[in-house]
Amino acid sequence: MKRLAVIGGGAWGTALAAVAARAGAGIVLWARDPAIVEAIKRRHENPLYLPGIALDPAIEATSDPAAALAGAAAVLIVVPAQFLRRALLMLAPLLPAGLPLLLCAKGIETQSLKTMSEIAGEIVPEAPVAVLSGPSFAAEVAKGLPTAVTIASRDPALARAFVAALGSARFRPYSSADPIGAEIGGAVKNVLAIACGIIEGRGLGDNARAALITRGLAEMIRLGLAKDAEPETFRGLSGLGDLVLTCTAGQSRNYTLGLALGRGRSLAQALSGQRSVVEGIATAAAVAALAEQFGLEMPITAAVAGVLHRGMAIDMMIDGLLSRPHRSE
User: What is this structure's pTM?
Assistant: First the structure.
């Protein structure tokens, strides 16, 4: 994998282009916004999403998807979860048979309740697929700060190939054979981060946040097992690792959104001026619906979905969680 196409010019796509360039791959980044393409070409920077972070001049940029794919040995799809279907439909006629895909979004599609790899299996069933997940803020990755992630695929050789293509001393991918587990972890943690932000915004303390993280992990595992994931996946980077990071760090868009809601701002006010997608908003509704489909109890997820999508009052959400019956752990 000496030449890679990166589809998506946001913060995470740009950061992964920087990662791949450091690992020695040739990179062509596709962005929908011509201003981003021109800035990367002329200034070697993405001023809209990663201002002030210098990019390798060897990173090419284009707004033509065919040009991005030309000569690529593999493709990193780095668009928000709810846009993955649209991106794959755009790319499908252009993809050479058997070209590997690395799916880098974290979420569940609201209309189908499918994970990212399930959507790829529907639209481009002939493409070998891996997923990337784990605790990774884009700005830190782009700056070259130490980061460890999971790359998961049903095909162990494909996971190892992506590890070799992206891995370096500062970016440490670990391979996994459980893409569904990695995807469930990456999706559910965003919902739980919103809940943790609400707890912090309401001033309920660190004890409450620790309890929420722990019980949220139980919800994550419950859904993962229903989707035939491996339980040990949730003890790794794409489960517990990503959950802890997103639920405790001010860089997290999901946590920051919850913090604003907990402090009394409306959803519209909390999102005002937000350029990047807050994945947990759509994912909360999708995960809650998926839990209902499987007949699972996921009270934290249901409460967050209630606040975001059904107008539930924050205090009612908190009272509802605190008044649940006592039970064994």
Answer: 0.96
